Each structure stands twice: as structure tokens, then as C-alpha cells.
Amino acid sequence: MKLTRRLVLAAAVAFTISTPALAQYPERPITLIVPWAAGGGTDATARTVASLLEQELGKPVNVVNRTGGGGIVGHTEIANAKPDGYTLGVITTELSLYHWLGTSPLDYKNYTPIALYNTDAQSINVRPDGPKDLKELLAKAKEKPGSLKASGANRGGAPHLAMAGLLNASQMPVDTVPWIPTDGITPALQLLTSNAIAVVGTTIPEVQSMVDAGEVKTLAIMRAERDPSFPNVPTVKEVAGVDWYLSSWRGVAGPKDLPADVAKRLSDAMAKVVQKPEFKSFMSARKFGMDYADAQSFGKFLSDADERFGTAIKAAGLAK
Amino acid sequence: MQTLLEAFRLIADPQVIVTVLLASIFGLFVGAIPGLTATMATALLVPMTFFMDPLSSIAAIVACTAMAITAGDIPGCLLRIPGTPASAAYTDETFMMTKKGLGAQALGSSLVSSVIGGLFGAIVLMVAAPSLARVALNFSSFEYFWLACIGLSCAALVSSTGFVAGLLSLFIGLLIATVGMDVISGSPRFTFGSVQLMGGVSFVPAMIGMFAISEILYSLLNGTARQRFAKPQKITGIFHGILPLISKYRTNVARGSVIGTIIGILPGAGGDIAAWITYATARRFSKESQKFGTGHPEGVIEAGAANNAGLSGAWVPALVFGVPGDAVTAIAVGVLFMKGINPGPRLFETQGAMLYAVFMIFLIANIALLPFGWLAIRAASKILSVPRPQLMAVILLFCIVGSFAINNTIFDIGVMLVFGILAFALSEAGIPIAPIILGIVLGPLLEQNFLTSMTIADGNLLAFFERPIAGVLGIFVLLLWSIPLVSAIMQVSRHVSHARPMKLT
Amino acid sequence: MSKAPFLAGAILSLLGAGVIAEAMRLPTIPGQTYGPGFFPVLIGAGLLVFGAIYALSVRRPMQAVILLEGEGTAPDEAEETVPERPFYGALAWLVTGLVATIFLWETAGFVLLMSVVLTVFMILLGVRFWHAGLVSIASTIIVYALFIKILMVPLPAGLLAPLGL
After folding, report:
1. What are the residues whose beta carbons fall under 8 Å from the beta carbon of A142, sequence distance 6 or more?
2. In its keyword annotation, does this UniProt entry include Signal (chain A) (predicted)?
């Protein structure tokens, strides 16, 4: 008796939640899942996007951090959410890696892309007394394979793959510059400045203050053309003649099969968000690369990123 | 001089003062709630800093974290729920003091030593930041490995239940630390196919379980669940009896401040490890080391000072190179960038006044700890007059929300329960809990730096002695280990010959 | 008395053996001496050895030494009132309550779940019904409001969602 009443109640609750006709989306607060911890880069961008999106949509957008499993927990949660537009999430570079590395079957096809709002190209950095340019670095590495060691992230992290992809594209075996896995960029920079390794691969904003301090210099950026924020940093292609580019990225997405009108509403809102002065000043202050792509181009971007990271992972010998 | 005056003018701004005040109260509140950490308090502040001027936003973070770290000791001391891994080093000691009715004294003395440690760290930060930061950059994985070894050596020193039990407990902690995705190889270990475990066992829920839940289980099984939680606390006049205590243990305060600052400056080490190491050094050099573990303030004073000194120390590499020393400064560095204050050595020239204003905020925040902390301690001590069943119910409630809040996942409530039962079983078997925490904290540091070093050196173990600082640290560690080993062997051999008389006692 | 340490030592020793066996199966990194299995093997060995020593030491006279060192730390329990009988009921409820919390978290919601779990817990410890109910409902609602509004922690509303909590 009690049980049936509870069931009825539960059903009633479920009913009231699921029925909102999509006449006037959104009718209630939206949850934005962030697969990374509060305080990190992704979290900071997500909170900015959320507060601006809130202005556009007229309903609260609450950021919820679902951390763990190298982002797998949060990404899974976004993919498994009910496709009603009330649970969205920020998806990040790692999504392009999981299925290649065999850590999770998730890939971009599990999501409805809404908008790409940030990309940061990978770069190659050395100590100021290191090689003068990328060409010299690669020549040195080729001359004595294994003598120069590189770091910047864990094995299979984006910086590792960027390096493996670069070596691969330069017709060199990936162990010419062995990768020293570390837990993030801080210990890697520490290894570089203490003269334990020779190269650090990461995005430019991560090393900018060390570059300013004269402890590190950036040799090249893995971008199709120069980054307008860092006009003095040459591209890989310019210096070494190797056609290789790879970026870390962040974007907003919902679960697969989001209703077309909801996706449209969100995509339109995001188009306005990235134009807002608050967003621009935030991104440039934190030196995050502002790269916007609407729903459709974001989808295309994702499949391209998936392919490029796949190439790099196979080159690094990490594909499952 | 001009810069100093300019700095004074900057902090005299009413907006800055109000911000410091509000952020302090917020920090106290978040820190005193079990399960909510200083990192979380800072993260929650970030959206608010969007609307503040640069100095106010940094002031808010500095004040808030200093308060949160210190307030984190309160639930640990009164209810055996450590707020941070740092306070876990001396949770049992302060809890013992609470049971004796000395909880307010324990908190008061750790508060005063925290303030001294914090001030010391801040002054070092002001005077020597750029040169110290450069030294810290010379530390590679080889040096960090030895540092982790020194930290581990403390396990034997912090446990009061004998060498073997302490080691056993340490190994359990190290084992727990291996669960999850291995950073070095990227392969999952001991996850049994669980996605939730890929990121490892979450630390805060495990800690809440091991201390608070196991305490509740203990009282239920021993039939003390309805008795008063602890004796009524003796609260005498403000700081009465505490200053004599601090001056009695001034060596500890000094040592704690120095070690805490040094460890804090090293990126990635931080206040947690500083607290553990100094608790152990306090015991090692104490004239009354047998009193440790029975509610003795000496170790608490030293570790309390180290903890807050480390907090200031962590800002050294953060301000000079933008390399954060711990999670809190990592967030703060982000805020700095957003406010257009780019960390770097040039910051000291271009933004001198601003920087000195920030340093002054450090001093003010640490001094403000005294009145605020005291009020919080007074208020919190009243908690113990609540009848035990009701108190336990509320503790349980906070344990559950605290465990959930750290990652927003129900899985962590399960982690809390499992570790509560585990810790209860272990303490019934005479195995101490504290070294487990040490193992969890140091496990990744030890392993990652070992494997990183070995990858760099192509498997050559001698490389651990080839760099100058590493060599010195390494020899120090080997000496540290050989002394107790030799004395243990001697003790055992003596013990074997005296086995009979011992049995008679 | 010495049963618990013996059991714990033996179990931990076995666990160590299990850890070693499991760690052996972890992949190695080609071309490197030390892989992800290296530390787990060391830890497993540590547990195996020290677990065994611990288990054996409590059966041998060595126990005297350990007790002499350890028991000095006993708090002055003498002043406390005599313990009552164990509260098995409350214990069982605590564990079931926590397990139920884990499974019903989203569906039942925080306020409802915690009120029930805590009320019954207190009643089993001899608190009067209305008192227990009042304390638990009041504290859960306060905590809920605090965490949702100020700390932005998404505690589930569950069945009480229609009330707009």
C-alpha cells in the first residue's frame, strides 16, 4: 500500500519533470556539468560561459563539477543525461582520446555539439640555453636519439600526443624524444628548469609566465597559422617544414539526440555569449585562445580532432 | 619607501577591508564544516572575484584560506573529523585533549602557533620570494623522491602503537594511493572495472570515514553512545594559559615555521606534508616523547605553525613564476591572470605597490585569525554540551554531505562507509590510522617521482645520487633509516635475551 | 584479546599476496625497467611480510613489548561512566541507513532520506520520538538550504521536489 503510493508519487514527480512541452525552452534552471575540478581552467571558462548563458536564456545555469576518472565520469554523465536540454556539459580534449586509448567507449558521436568556445594550440618549449629553434632541436634529437627527453603531461595526454604526432610527421620514430610522463604541467616545468629534461610540450598560456620570467622559451606552436595572441611564435610548418597542428579544445554540448529546436536555441545563445565583452575580456585575461565554432562546424571540428588525435595515438603506440 | 606608502594607501580602501572581513567569516564557516576544504572555499570565491578590484580579490582569497585552514582543525579536534589532510596529522592528538577537557586549549594553542607560522611565512615571502623561488626551481623529480622518503620516515614516528603496526598501516595507505588510473603508464590499477575508481579513492570521504565514522561505530559497539562526548571544556579568559604554553614550546614554533615555509615553497609538496613532517620532528626531538598520542600539545603546536607557514610559502613560486605550490594557489594564480596581474619576477618591479599590499594582506589576515579564530573556537566548544545521540546524528549528517560535496557523487558516500568500517576494524586490531593518511598523501609523490626519475635516467638507480641536492638528501635519508634499523636490531637482540623477565611484568 | 591483531595481520598478509599477484598482471612499458606494477609489488610484499610479523608477534612473547609501548597511550577512561551494553540495533540501522542513502539518494531526495535515517538512529539510542524527529528534520532542512543556496552543492530534492524545496 505504502509502496504503491510512493510509486504513484514518484511517477507523478517524474511526469511533471519530463512533460514540459518545449514550447518555451528553457522553463527551469539548466545544469552545466563540468568533468573537471572546481578551480581549474575548464571550470573557470565554464563558470563564465554559464553566467553569460544565463543572461541570454533568462533561467539559471548551474555549474556542477563531476570529477574523477580523468574526466570520464563527467563526460559519461553528460552523454547519459536526458536529452531535454536541461542537462548540458562542457566537453574537453580528452573526449577525443578515450576511445582510442581504450579507457572508455565514449566519443563525440555520443553528444549533440552546441558550440566550441576555446582552442589552445600545443607548443614546444625549451630552456633559454636550449636549441635556438625547432629545426635545431629536431636535428639534435635525430643525431642522438634518446638524448633529449620531453614532458608536459601524463602518457596519452594531449601534449604527449602532440609531440608523438610531430615526430611522426617529421619521419622520426617516436622514441627519438622519449616522453617522461608527469602528473600535469607543474612538475614537468619543474623538471625542465632543474635541467632534468630538455623539452616541455604544452599550450602557450601554461608557460607564459615562465617565458616572461626568462626561464623558458617557446620554439614553435602547432597551429595552421600563427596565433594572433602570440604573433612572435612561429608555427611548426614555418620552421621545420612539417605539416602538423594539434589543439586542446573546450566546448558546450548536450547528450545525443537533443531536440532540434532546443539545440538551435542554445547554439544561438552561445553565438551571442562569445561576442560579449565580459567573455572576451575573461578569455584574453586568462590567455585562453578564443575560437568559436557553431553547432555544425563544432561537429566537423570534433570529427577532425578525433582523426588527428587517432593518428597521434597510433604513432605513439598507445592505441588499443 | 614610496611603494610601501602606496601599498598602505591601497589597503586602506574600505572595500578591501570589508572584503577581508567577509571573506574571513566565509572561510571560517566553510573550514569549520567537516568535509569542506580550503580549496573548495577558494573555488566558491572565484565567481565573486569577477566583481571585485584586483587587490580585493586576492585579499579575499588570502583571508579566506588562512581562516579555512585554521578552522579545519576545529571539527578534527572536537569531533575527530579532520577538515584537511594537514590537520589529520594531529587530529587524534587534539581529540585526546578534548576528551580530557582541554579541547579549547588544544585549539587555542594551535591557533596561536598557526598565526606565528603564518606571519613567519608571510615575512619570508616579502623578503626573499624571488631568490627562494629560483632555488625551488632546481628541485627535480630526483630531489622530490628523497623528500617523499623523508616524509614516509615520519610514519614510524607518528604512530604510537609500535613500529610494525605503523609500517603495516603505512603500506595500507600506499596501497590505497595506487588505486586508479596510473599517471605514468595511463593504465588503470585495482579499479575492478569501476569508472568511479579510475580517478582513485577520493581522499576527503576516505578521511571522514576513517576518523568520524569509525568513532561512531566504536561508541555504538562499546556502549558509550549515550554518554557525554567529552568532558566539559575548560575555557578560561582569552588566551589565558596559552601564551605560557607557546613560550614553553617556542623551539617547536620556530622549527615548525621554518620547515613549513621551506616545504611550502616547493611546488607540489605543501602544507599537508609539512604538518606531518613537523609533527614527527616534534616527537623525535621532544623531551617527553612518550606523552605524544595522549593529548600532548607539543606536536600540535609545531605542526600548526608549519601548516600555516606552508600556506604562505606556497605563494612564493606562484607569485614569482606562476607555478602554484598547492591547489589553493593554483586557483589564485588563475584569478591573478584574470585581473591582469601576471605572476613573474617582473611583478616585483612593475606592480611593486600592489604586491606589497598583497603581502600586507597576508599579515593582516594572519593577525585577524586571532580574534576570529578565538570566537569560532568558543562557539564551537559549546557543541560538546549537546547530548551525544543528537550530536552523533548531526555529525553523521555532515559526514554524508561533506563526502558527497567534494565530487558531487554518491559513490563517495560509499567510500566513506567502507573506510569507516575498515578503520574501525584496524583500530580494534591495534593498527593505527594516521599512517594510512600519510601513505595516501605521499604515495603518488613517491611513486611518480621514482618512476619519472627512472625514465629520465634510463633505469640507472645511481642517478638518485648524481645531482648535488639529491645526493645530500639521499645520504640524509639513508642515515635516517639506518639509525632506527640498527637500534631496532639491537633492541630485538636485547629483547630476545630478556624475553623471560619481560613476560613477568 | 590477541585474536583481532592475529586475524588482521593474517588478512593483511593475504591481501599483500593478492596485490602482488594482481600487480604482476599489470602491463609493462616497453623499454623500461620500472612499470606501473613495480610499486604495487613492493607494497604487496610489505603487507605480506609485516602482516605476517604482526600476526605472529601477538602470539609470541613479543606481545609484551608492543603492549608496553602501546598501552601507555590509554586515555583516562576511569572517570567516564560505566559503558552500557552495545547498541547493536543502532549499529545495524546505521549501516543499512547509509546503504539505503546510497541507493535512494536521487529518488527519495536528501531531506526525506536523512530525516528518516537520523530520526530512527536517535530513537534507537533512546531519544524520544518527537525530539528525534524535530532535531533531524530541522537540521537536514538547514543543511540542505545551506548547501544548495550558499555552497552550490547539488543535493537532490527527490520526492519533495514538488514542494519547491
Report:
1. A172, A176
2. yes
